[in-house]
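Changelog entry: the Gap junction protein record was regenerated in this release. Current contents:
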Amino acid sequence: MGDWNLLGKLLESAQEHSTVVGKVWLTVLFIFRILVLGTAAEKVWGDEQSGFTCDTKQPGCQNVCYDKTFPISHIRFWVMQIIFVSTPTLIYLGHILHLVRMEEKEKQKEKDLAILNEKQQQFTGNKSKKAPVKDNQGHVRLQGALLRTYVFNIIFKTLFEVAFIVAQYFLYGFELKPMYTCDRWPCPNMVNCYISRPTEKTVFIIFMLVVACISLLLNLVEMYHLGFTKCHQGLRYRRSQAANEAQKHLNEAVMPFVPSYNYFAGHPTVPEPFPADPNVLSCLLPQIHISDGSLSGFK
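Regenerated structure tokens:
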């Protein structure tokens, strides 16, 4: 298990910057693959070649028959599988560390410029502010180039899982038989070869196959979850943008009401209803005679 310490520490660091489904995938990788492979499977396959016997004494026949039956050891095959499916996650972790390091350098540069008070305005004005890699809670923001790296990480993990499952099927199948026949040279004729503990080894093969299928399913679920989440966020953003645009157009369409009184500057005065000249008024108004307290008609 000492050989897995470095890989375990790196994957543990990547787990802090993964989604919920990604954390479950890494847990399955730790417990049901690395732990089982390091503690139990290596002991079961410890006598793989020494327990392989053939009913012949022809020199070299047993070795070539073993090579035909097991082109690659199951243990080494599973180790390669773990390394390949973990590599995209390690690349994603390297991208995170690179972005965090660059952000720390930018912050340090801003502090130095603020202390020296040299070209601070030019620095902050010409260079647009980028969104921080981590939020207030210390979680990595999956956006931009980092989001693309994470998506490619899931895609390549899925492809590697499928490739190794198919390769295992064509190399050995999913079951070990107690006896295999071999007619390779230098065997004089058809010989029978036997392996040790075929049932126990078959159980481990099926177990590792099930774990690989679970990991593959988790990758597909994570792709769906990530795509659904980002699409939902995009729709919400577009709806909010559309609502803001509609509100903006509505505000521009409704003009404020300003009454046209003469005490508002810039507005023309309202014309008087009657002329101010008394001569004109005398011509326009009817003449009414009052005599003896009574009204007479119009003149």
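DSSP finds eight helices and five strands in the chain.
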